[in-house]
Amino acid sequence: MIPLFPIGLGCMKITKIHLSNFKRFSDLLIENIPPHSKLVLMIGANGSGKSSVFDAFGFCDGAIKRDISIREEEFLNYFKKKNDQPVSVKINFDNDLSIALSDSQYYDAAKNLPPHSFYGRTSLRQVPKLTRTSLGQSGRISFENDSDRPKLSIERDNRFENDVERITQMIYRDVFQSNQSSEQIRKKYIHQINASLQNIFGNENGTKLSLVEFIPPGDGRTAAINFSKGESAIHYNYLSAGEKAVFNLLMNLMSRVSLYPDTVYYIDEIDLHLNTALQFSLLKEITENLIPDNCQLWTASHSLGFIEYAKQTETASIIDFGNLDFDLPRILSPEAKDNPDIYEIAVGKSILPSLFKGKRIFFVENQDKNYFASVDILNTVFVSDNDRNSVFHKVRTSNYCGIIDRDFLSDDDILQIRRHYPNLFVLRYYSIENCLYHPDNLDEYYSSKGLPFNKEEYISQLTEAKNLCKDSIALQLALKRTEYPFFREPEYSESPLQKRFKNEKQNVEQSAAIARNLNSDDFETYYKSLPMKKYCTQLRQRQHIPKSELSKTKWFEKNLDDLIRIGLQDYKILGHERLGGCPLPN
């Protein structure tokens, strides 16, 4: 493929954005964007504020190009959240450039940025049919200054037929000002477009879409832009909405990308009218083949194909705009790529079973998912939720499974919880850290590295450390247990089960049982109630070991597998046949 863009002179990649009193947001900070991010995908439901970021880029672009009159009340009111407060947009780039704009410091604050710093497309760019019958019909356009761009994200983007005219000009220039043959020119333009169309739509005879004719408008006739698909010949006007949307983007980028080699591109709703597979292919083509490596692409979507591409791509970052309170200060950073929660934006947790058909879905606490996911358990997917209470309520109101920390639960507490909430599983030990730093797990880890480890010495030191903190732990048991969500439903009102987690004698009784565990020097007795996340952290045997490595041992895998396998067997004993959308094992 012959590139239509020159080698850039530098990089324009955003690492931080700060918006104050801008559009929907009182105070929004997006930070920690890796400087190698060529793609930044903003995900979130409709109305979550993603387009406000595009307007921030447009706000900057207007100051750089000096073609937005910030003093006009219409523009200022559009950008401001509260009219009586100043608006502020600050953006940092990885090349040590930055821009800090306000309504009082607008044009002058943008002097240090080149005029091609930003290039954007709004979502309103559909052109259902060609209308122009001659070149130059739209008047004089400065493509170098992007004079035909919409100034706001709510405005229609009518650049498609201008792009047809620019490519016509480029072809004429190559014909009359170079020694290129007609075949070379055809390869430079037509073949490049067809290569992209093939990468997106595929090469099967029934789906392959190819541009076969490109004749500009003239003599009172609209442009003859014709395609082949299978055995059919199709004029542009009769392409599907999705095919037109793709061709629109390809023409725009191929006609103008040479003017924007060091640029932040921002394109809203690239995925219009496309299925999941085409979403993936289109974003891949634009990111990897059409936009220069010195540049960065920002787009917004809640589509599975886009999320999946960004998830698989090392140079992509995902920013989640879900559930933001626009009136409060908010800080966003890129999401972890291995977090299945990002799929909720596209499909919602209510239909996760259809996405992971044939698999059991387990909700787990916070970052525990990172360790569970390293264990290959058949037909099982782990999805993180905020905390223990969130996991509990998810399980209580659905058919999902959940795994929670043991925390300060007694043996009898766990028995009652398993009986009344059979799809809620409880770790054998206080928390995931107890599993990771268990002497048997450490023994396997050190052995795999060829390093010495004395298990008996570790247990002895652990017991000594436990005895130094057991009394302070015991003092907080009853109070901490009142934070637990179990048996709060009306059917348990005033029952002994509910009183276990209130300031009642039943709570004191179970707390005493846990305190007895901690008083014991038998390892398995006290270890299940010892908060290893907070205590005994000074032991040298647990220093400088990544938790992710400790979750890859066979001991850890067996411990988790036993928890799930035994729990599922108990669930089946109660007469159930399916759990979380998946048949139970025999």
Polypeptide structure, described:
This protein is of the alpha/beta class. The strands form 5 sheets. Strands 5-4-1-2-13 form a 5-stranded mixed sheet, covered by helices on one side. The protein has a 5-stranded parallel sheet with strand order 6-10-11-3-12, sandwiched between helices. The chain starts with 13 loop residues before the first strand and ends with a strand. The protein contains 20 helices and 19 strands. It is elongated, with a radius of gyration of 30 Å. Mean pLDDT is 88; it is low at 1-9 and 573-586. Helix 4 runs antiparallel to helix 6. The longest helix has 27 residues, at 455-481. 38% of the residues lie in helices and 16% in strands. It has 2 domains: 14-156 and 259-341, Rossmann fold (3-Layer(aba) Sandwich); 349-583, no CATH class.
